[in-house]
Structures are given as structure tokens and as C-alpha cells.
Amino acid sequence: MKYFTxxxxxxxxxxxxxxxxxxxxxxxxxSHRGRKFKEIYSKAESGLRKILAIPAENKIFFISSxxxxxxxxxxxxxxxxxxxxVNGVFxxxxxxxxxxIKKEPAKIEVSWRSDFDYNSxxxxxxxxxxxxxxNETSTGVALNIKNVYKLxxxxxxxxxxxxxxxxxxxxxxxxxxxxLVFFSVQKGFGLPAGLGILxxxxxxxxxxxxxxxxxxxxxxxxxxxxxxxxxxxxxxVETPNVLNIYLLGKVCADLNTRGIxxxxxxxxxxxxxxxxxxxxxxxFKNFVQKKSIRxxxxxxxxxxxxxxxxxxxxxxxxxxxxxxxxxxxxEQIRLPNFPSTDTREMKQLLKMIARNVI
Length: 358
Ligand SMILES: *Cc1c(COP(=O)(O)O)cnc(C)c1O
Prior knowledge:
The protein is of the alpha/beta class. It has 2 domains: about 1-10 and about 260-355, Alpha-Beta Complex (Aspartate Aminotransferase, domain 1); about 15-255, 3-Layer(aba) Sandwich (Aspartate Aminotransferase, domain 2), CATH 3.40.640. Helices cover about 40% and strands about 15% of the residues. It contains 11 helices and 14 strands. A 7-stranded mixed sheet has the order 2-10-9-8-5-3-4. Strands 1-13-14-12-11 form a 5-stranded mixed sheet, with helices on one face. Strand 3, helix 4 and strand 4 (about 105-110) form a beta-alpha-beta unit. The protein is globular, with a radius of gyration of 21 Å. The protein binds pyridoxal-5'-phosphate.
């Protein structure tokens, strides 16, 4: 089966080789407190730092998922008030999580294929944290983060959290302005699921320290202060997903060898090809009409008469596609365009899709 799914996605092509090496070297049975693990930790950390251009002062923490990152951020950095940009399922999840853990989240919401009117947005005075989903996996809308940097500059005391789960490593982030950036690895990095990455700037650590000093709740074992303390020893609080941390280091090295500039260029060229392929064809419609907010990494296509038949037929031929999300499930397909996507295979896939929809 070939996986053209958006997450979990197709594994990066070097993964089977690296898993074999991990088993042959006995990595999976090493103690997570030993020297070998510290080397694995350091390699993943430095590989990520290089490919995402993360400054030395920002810390990188290994956690379980992007969803967990949302909870850690809200617990460790917010006494009460977060402010959420909501334009799809994942941004809404972040907002709802705030309610679930008894914070007082506020939101601004737009329909699933629209942009925000940034000039008219008033971020509340007492806002402690701005939450922004740069690439909405549920809709294929990618927002220009510079608009939020502007708003953040007007509220310098507020922290900024950015979800880049389905645009990493394509998305370029200014880590001096984005205090908390997170993703899980089963989408853009093409790794098995079960590992989340949280990148934390000094202002966020300071805020957590403030909460702790003033006797506010900062969360359980994965609070930012304990993550930082263990991270300085190149260790994790718990027994972590050693295999995935190992694979992340290896895949980062592979991607760094290809070069991030080249990877970004390939993603852009492929996105252009895919969007124009469907633009011209009868039976298809690009869901996101405004070109400036069309995601380069998650491409959503409406299928005339519904997508169910197409998805079933493709499955019979050995190609697995993602349907639309939630209310769009039966109308759409969503295509991944990640570093693990092969251009030749993608072109073949598009031809097959076209043949199945007439
Ligand atoms: C998939 C996804 C998540 C959730 O990731 P988990 O690994 O399931 O926690 C969060 N945000 C975005 C944008 C996603 O695409």
C-alpha cells in the first residue's frame, strides 16, 4: 500500500534502514540514563536546531504529541487568559483544551477557508498567551505568521505559541518572536507517531518560573521547569520514546544532507504542480480559493459528487488517500506534500485520480 495520507503519513524512505540499525546496535535496550542515550538525545537536538534554524537560547523538549504540547503550554505559561485564532479543527482543539483545564481562553473565529482580518483584531489587554495554528491540517489553509508577529509586537508581555505540526520543516519561524513552537513527527518528518517536539524560548521559561514562584499550578511531570532541568542533562523526565528520538536524529541528518533550501523549493514546485493540475480539470475544485492562504504542505481538493468512491477505488489499486476532515469528510481528499513525498509518485497518483473521476 502506498500512503498518500496527511498523518500519519508516508514514512521517510530511510526509516526502514535506520530501524534496522537501531535494532542491530541494541539501542532499544539501552538505559535512558546512560551515555549512549545522551548521545542520541544530543544528535536529535542538534539536527533539529540546524534544519529549523533554532537559536541556541531556545530549548528543545521531547514530549509525546502535539496535543500534549498544547496542554503543557497552557498549564505552564497561563494563569488564566489565552487568546486563540480558530479556523479549523486543530486550532479549536487548542482553545477547547484551555476550557477543559479550567483556564479562561478567548477566541476569534473565521470560517474554514477564510483568513483573519488582522487589522481589526483587538487582543484583550490581559491576554497572557496568543495561540496560532500556522497550517490547519483540517482545511489546508496556511496563514501568514507575519500578521501575528505584528499583533504580538503590540502586546509585548503576551507569549506567542505556534502549531506547525503539518508544515514542519517547510515553515519558517522567527523563534525570537514565537516563544513556544510545537509539532508531532508523524506528518512533516515522516516518522512513526508517538513523539512531540516543543521548542521553548527564554520568556516562556521565565513565565513558568513566575507561576511556580507564586504558587500557581504549572502542570504535572511535563511542566516546562522539569523539562528544562532534565533537558540540560540531555535526558527526559520519563522513559521516553528512544526509538523515535533516534530516528528523528537520523532523519534530520538525512534532510540536512539534502539541504532545507532545496527541500523547501521542491515542496513549492510540487504544490504549484498539484494545485494547477486540479485547477484545470473538470470534476475537481481546489477547496481554498484564496491563493495566498493555500497550504503548500496540505492540499485539499473538493471532488464533484463526493470523494468516497474515489477513495475506495484508489484503495483497491493500492493507494491510500485522506478524506476531508469532519464535516468535509465525504466531499474532499487531502493530499500531503512533505519532504517524504516523491515527485514522480505524486504525478502518477494525480493521473490515476484523474482517471477515476470523470
Ligand atoms: C495532527 C495535528 C495535531 C495533533 O497531533 P497529535 O500528534 O495527534 O497530538 C495538532 N495540530 C495540528 C495542526 C495537527 O495537524
